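Narrative summary of target 7.
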Amino acid sequence: MTTSSAAAVHGVSLGHPDTAAAEHWLASLSAVPVLACTHLVRSPRPHVALSLVFAGAAPAGLGAPSPEAVAQHTVSGRAVLFPGVQLLVGTLSVAEVRELSAIERVEVLGGGEADPAALISTGGFVRPQWRAGVLTLTTTPAAGGLLVPFETRHPTPCCAAH
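Modeled conformation, tokenized:
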């Protein structure tokens, strides 16, 4: 499955302080984009902006435009919504993840490309990133010989035990 590059990309900057806030706003949209990515931007102050692609016309009133998010869309965006994301639940092979979704590459952190037969326990939370036009999911080894997405739904804050 591939993503369409012909549709218009809309950049939105509402000053979200983090990806969770940006995803919460995204979930509130009445028109669901077919592709939505978060981007860490610096201007006018550090915040999270979004790039959105709709199947049809974009809804009115999305918010302040973000040319920076549009420019980063398939270069360094973190995909929240993408074709096939709803199918990435449970445990799937790397080959199935690539077949069912727009994810084109699966990597093991520090180890290169994942074996197509390797199993990924998705936890129902998959956030691949664009790298030079390729939607890439980074995974890490887990118990039982499984892989899990590197980014988790509820990350442990740095220095949580201090």
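The chain has three helices and twelve strands.
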